[in-house]
Specification:
Blueprint lengths: L2 E9 L3 H10 L7 E14 L5 H13 L14 H12 L13 E3 L5 H4 L6 E8 L6 H15 L3 E14 L14 H7 L5 E4 L5 H4 L9 E2 L13 E2 L19 H14 L6 H12 L1 H5 L8 H10 L2 H4 L1 H4 L3 E2 L2 E2 L4 H11 L4 E3 L6 E3 L8 E5 L7 E5 L5 E3 L5 H6 L1 H17 L10 E7 L27 H19 L3 E8 L3 E3 L24 E3 L1
Parallel strand pairs: 16-17
Antiparallel strand pairs: 1-2, 1-3, 2-5, 4-5, 4-6, 7-8, 9-10, 11-12, 12-15, 13-14, 18-19
Helix pairs in contact: 2-3, 3-5, 8-9, 16-17
Length: about 525
């Protein structure tokens, strides 16, 4: 079934952000005469709705692109279906026509034939990655269902279209812009988005992979050349003995297989965690209880996530040796030391989603509350003690990879945990702080940056400058849109060479995803 493509009616990005994006593109100054942007929406209709009804919706859209709804309507006609869709996709106050034609796109249609561009124009379509569902799609699809389209629309998705007009005296490169790594990096989030030259087919936008079968990692009957993970029908199958009747593997052999799974599945487990898992699945206690079996890939992945640095703070809890002397306290012990030394006025700490500080008896603070006798009438009453919730949320890796959404969801996690304290709380305001390496602002280098100007950075990570240009906006945007503003912030830069005895990283090719080590060890390493 074809999907309905509904372009937006206004610029997706402000002029300031478009200018900043143009500067990141690999074209000389003045090569781009202008660039426009607009959102584009994709409507995936339920198969039961039928092709003829979908065509009727398109006809209704062509007859009146901005229908007016003055009362609730039922989706009992193509006109009403289009009226609901158009109203939901239109920003309040918008009355102009869509910035491109509303059309149906089928799977067998040539994307290049859809475009009506001049010879000096090129388009870039930035859409969610294949097989993923964007957060916007989840929310929008729910809203469509609540507005009566649950049996009509299966899913809604959104992307951004950039239309680039090149200057007359610039020779346009004969390459696909969607495959140029500098354009892809500048115009999209590589973790969550993909770039196309034109509108892709519905089967690509709304593709959903079939769930992969449960697999076991054969540590119980491990051999050097066997398959790392074998599909099984259910978790009980992981408890079966090897069909050949071979003996249970030795601990060393089991650890070797699990270490291989650790590498290939990207679990990031430490050696002691691998040993713990082998003992849990094959140890004497598991054998005595009759539960010895192979672990599944799902269990190993969940164990890795639950015991990740983000959840367990293993680095903060680790033992430390400085200048050859073992330290008595871990970093987390030092964090707790302040509250341990001065516990007064702390009602709760390190036992809930956030700490609670004791407040004064705020007799001057009053609040509206329903009368006990009549829930329809409200009156002012003394609020009593107004305790203060304090919470810090770190979101280092997501912000490093994708600054704007990474910082935005970090703020979301903070707000979530604040609201879940005790029996519930009311998040009021917050701050966002960033500690990054040297900014290296082009044309504005600082004296302290010279000593580390040759330090390379991983190709998959955003630069410190990009983080500081995008992440504060992401954190503030989520906070403000939620209604709990970010009213304060800070940032610091720090980059230093320290002796570690490790060989230094060498600068990487932009197309390479791995760092190369020098043959000769060096005592310099950058942090």
């Amino acid at each position: 079934m074809p999907m309905l493509v509904v372009p937006g009616r206004s610029q997706a990005l402000s002029g300031f952000r478009l200018s900043a994006l143009i500067e990141k593109f690999p074209f000389p100054s003045g090569a781009i005469a202008s660039m426009q942007s607009h959102h584009v929406h994709f409507i995936d209709f339920d198969a039961a709705y039928g092709d003829s009804n979908v065509s009727a919706v398109l006809q209704a859209a062509h007859e009146e692109h901005t229908p007016k709804i003055t009362r609730a309507v039922a989706p009992d006609s193509a006109e009403n279906v289009w009226a609901i869709i158009a109203t939901l996709l239109r920003v309040p106050g918008e009355s102009g026509a869509p910035r491109a034609s509303i059309r149906l796109v089928s799977d067998n249609e040539d994307p290049q034939e859809q475009q009506s561009l001049t010879e000096r124009q090129r388009e870039i379509w930035v859409l969610p990655r294949r097989g993923t569902i964007s957060p916007w799609s989840s929310k929008a699809t729910d809203i469509f269902g609540l507005c009566g389209l649950g049996n009509v629309v299966r899913r809604v998705e959104r992307g951004i279209v950039y239309c680039i007009t090149f200057a007359d005296d610039f020779e346009i490169p004969q390459v696909k812009l969607s495959e140029h790594h500098q354009i892809v990096n500048a115009g999209s989030d590589r973790m969550t988005e993909a770039v196309y030259e034109a509108c892709p087919p519905a089967s690509l936008i709304f593709a959903q992979a079939e769930p992969r079968p449960l697999r076991e990692v054969p540590i119980r009957d491990s051999t050097a050349d066997q398959e790392l993970a074998r599909p099984i029908s259910n978790i009980e199958a992981a408890a079966r003995q090897d069909e050949s009747g071979s003996a249970v593997a030795t601990t060393d052999a089991a650890m070797a297989v699990l270490a291989r799974a650790n590498r290939e599945l990207g679990l990031a487990l430490a050696a002691d965690e691998i040993a713990y898992l082998v003992d849990a699945y094959l140890g004497s206690q598991a054998a005595a209880d009759g539960i010895a079996r192979n672990p599944t890939d799902t269990e190993l992945m969940m164990f890795a996530q639950v015991n990740s640095e983000h959840c367990r703070h293993k680095i903060f809890r680790a033992s430390w040796t400085i200048d050859g002397r073992a330290q008595e306290m871990s970093l987390f012990d030092w964090i707790r030391a302040t509250q341990k030394a001065h516990p007064e006025h702390v009602l709760s700490a390190y036992s809930d989603n956030a700490a609670v500080l004791e407040a004064v008896q705020a007799s001057s603070i009053r609040e509206w509350a329903p009368l006990d006798s009549d829930g329809q009438r409200w009156a002012l009453r003394d609020s009593g003690a107004v305790h203060i919730v304090a919470k810090v949320e770190t979101h280092n890796h997501p912000t490093l990879i994708s600054p704007f959404p990474g910082a935005a969801t970090g703020t979301g996690g903070e707000i979530r945990d604040e609201g879940a304290v005790g029996r519930g709380s009311h998040p009021k305001c917050g701050l966002a702080g960033f500690t990054v390496s040297d900014l290296r602002i082009p044309g504005f280098s600082q004296p302290w940056e010279k000593a580390t100007a040759d330090v390379p950075f991983p190709a998959h990570a955003a630069s410190a400058l990009d983080i500081m240009l995008e992440a504060p906006l992401g954190a503030a945007a989520f906070a403000n849109e939620f209604g709990r503003p970010a009213i304060l912030g800070y940032f610091r830069t720090y980059l230093q060479r320290v002796p570690t005895g490790m060989p230094p990283l060498q600068p990487q090719d932009p197309d390479s995803s791995t760092a190369q080590l020098t043959d000769e060890p060096d005592m310099d390493c950058e942090v």
